[in-house]
Every structure is written in structure tokens, then in C-alpha cells.
Amino acid sequence: MDVVQKNIPGDRGASVFVLDRKLIHGNKLILYVFLIYAVCAAFFFLYNDLHYYARFLIYKIPYLIAFAGVLVVKSLSYVISHKMTYGYYLDRKKILPDLKESWLNISVIYTVFMPFLGISFIMSIFASIKTLFPMVNPFYLDVALGELDQALHFGSHAWELTHAVFGSVLATRVMDFMYQIWFGILLIFPVWMVVSYRLGNIRTKFLLAYILTWSLLGTFFAVASSSVGPVFYGNFVDGANIYAPLMDRLHEISGVIKGDDGAVGLYSILAQKILWSYYTNDYVVLGSGISAMPSMHVSFAALVYLTVGEMNRKAGYVALLYLIFIQIGSVHLGWHYAVDGYLSILLTWAIWKFSGWLVGRVCGAEKSLNPDNPDQYPQQARIG
Predict the structure, then answer these.
(1) How far apart are CA 184 and CA 74, in angstroms?
(2) HSE (side-chain half, CA atoms, 13 Å) at 325
(3) pLDDT tens, 199-228?
(4) Sign for the pseudo-dihedral over CA of 275, 276, 277, 278
(5) List of the chain residues with pLDDT < 70
């Protein structure tokens, strides 16, 4: 490790002014891409004279809560691993040196807090721009996406197939639950990767791909392919609403759930009503903005799968199962056309491969990882 002052584990006088050039070098890519997105976003707002819609702190509180939660889990993991290794929970003489070595030095503070602030900023800007999609490029692609969806599924709408297999109240409720916890994963997983700086290139690769998916797919491609999805099809497309039977079925299932236990029904139905209220009142808040193509729910789930699968094959199977749930659920619950997810998976995979190539070129190759062997990672960096 390249340092300004050597930091010796267990040395109570260790300096916090430790400069790990490899950590800082690995963060350069993330910083550069973040700055490029910020400049492009500023141009978007100014060129379209929509700067008064820009919000920079929409995701501040959710990410701070996620950050605090991740730190608590990391701290508990440290205490428990200490107990398992040494037979006691904490050694007061080692706590401060361990903190200085692992957290309280310039390299780690920069490596963790720069991308943490960056993803909060990017997601806030994304939420602002997403709300403005129809002002810049009015929704136009839904008819074509619906026809393509039907052609790809041999004349049937994708939702007809999902409801033929998973059309029961219980199955739909499970789909709805899986879809709703996506937001928690959206907050927790990137923050976990941010603080797990010992993961090295895989961490840099994920963060780079994360920024690129939300900027290239979630912002620029979404503006170009402006669409609303089946749930709002009847509100924007003239003529018969071909997705009315889907929405009638979802409302029927939601009503059954309400009658069974007095619950709110399907959370997706509630979220769709709230989203429509945001749209009609021009709100720029957490969760506002309508966009179908591409599906960022599917894109992020695919990115999690690619990341976890590269670190641990067995955990990757769980992430793959969740990706399948999100792909099916996005159609089943009326949020997306199936093709939104198909294309999102393909483009996310391409971004993942490009990010790996770029990280390898800029940061240098690391020892090949065996996804069947999680012990290859330092204990502090392992997932879970």
C-alpha cells in the first residue's frame, strides 16, 4: 500500500492521515462519470429552461437512513466476528487502532463518502428529470411497445400469460410484495457496496455500472423512448384501452385482499394512484415521474444479480430468482410491457461488461475471483 504515513494495526498512535493511492485511484472513474452526468444534467435543465424543477436532495434522508443501517450491521458483524475469533467481543486497546486503519483515514473517508454523496445526488437528479420526460418528449411509444409485446408472445399480451400462471390472489400478492421491497434493496445494496471498499475492482465495477445504468438507461434512453406503461395506457392513448382487463383484474384482486384482512390491498394499486396524483399536480418528489421503457426496476435487479453472482455463485442464484420475480411482476402488476424488461436486462449486461473492461484498463487487473469461494474476500468485505 502506498501511504504518506504508515499505519500499523494495533498502534494506538497510528495517524489518520493515511493515503492509499490504490483506493483513491479506483475512485477516479466513479468521480469522472459522476461529474459527466452532473454536467449533462445541468445542460438538460438549462437548455430546456426547466432548472426550477431541479431537486438535489430528494434522496438525502432515505440514503442517510440506509447508511446508518449498514454501519450498524457492519459494526455488529465486527463485534460478532471478534467474539468468534478471539473469544471476547471487544478489546478496548484495539478499537481505536482498528477504526483508524479501517475507517478514520483520508483514503477511506474519500473512498466511501464521495460515491455515497454521488449516488444520492444522482438519484435525486434522476427523479427530477424523470418528472420532466413528457415536457421534453411527450409520451408516444406505448402503442408500438404494446404491439411488439404481443408479437413477441405469439399474439398474446404478456400480462395474459403471467395471469394464466400466477393469477391467483396469493401469487399476485407475493409478486406485489417482491416488487415493493425493491425500493429497500435500491437503497441498501449500493450503500453496502460503497462502504465495502475492500472489495476492490468489483466494487468499482458495480458503482460505475450503477451510475451508467441510471444515467444512460434511466435518463437519456428513457427520454428518447418516452412511454407510460399499461397502467396509464388508457390515460394517454386514444381509442380503446387494451389494458383495461388487466387493470380490472388487479383491482378485483386488491378488493379481495382488502376484504380478507382489512389491508390496503395491492400496494402497486396504491402506488399507481399516488404516482398519478404526483403527475397531475406536477410534484417533483421521491417516487414521482412516469416512465415505462426501459424498466429500471428490472435493470437494477439485473445489476444486483450480475454483481452478487460474480462474488458468490450460490448467492447469485438467489439474486437471479429475485430478478425473475421483478421481470414477471413488472408485467403482472401493470407497470411495464415485457419488452421493457427484456431490453433492460440486455443493456444492463452490456453496461456491466463495458464497466468491467474499463475498470480493468484504468485500475489494472486483479486476481481472478472464484464465485464458488466467498472466502477469497477479506472478512470485512464479504456480503452478509
Answers:
(1) 17
(2) 20
(3) 888 999 999 999 999 999 999 999 999 999
(4) positive
(5) 1-26, 86-93, 100-102, 260-262, 365-384
Residues whose CB falls within 8 Å of the CB of residue 244, separated by 6 or more in sequence, listed in order: 234
Amino acid at 102: S
The amino acid sitting at 36 is I
Q: Over the stretch 81-103, which tens digit does the pLDDT of each residue have?
A: 777 776 666 666 677 777 766 67
Cα torsion 224, 228, 234, 235: sign: negative
Question: Residue 306: which of 296, 293, 320 has the closest Cα?
Answer: 320
Amino acid at 231: V
Cα–Cα dist 315/308, whole Å: 6
Q: What is the pTM of this model?
A: 0.88
Q: From 225, 199, 211, select the one nearest 351 (Cα to Cα).
A: 211
Contacts of 324 (CB under 8 A, 6+ apart): none
User: Which residues, at least 6 apart from 101, have a Cβ–Cβ distance to it below 8 Å?
Assistant: 7, 9, 14, 18
Contacts of 90 (CB under 8 A, 6+ apart): 79, 82
CA quadruple 371, 373, 379, 384: dihedral, nearest 10:
60
Handedness of CA 227, 168, 298, 42 (dihedral sign): positive
Q: In 10 A of CB 280, how many CB atoms?
A: 9
Cell of 81: 466476528
For 114, residues 6+ apart whose C-beta sits below 8 A from its C-beta are: 27, 30, 31
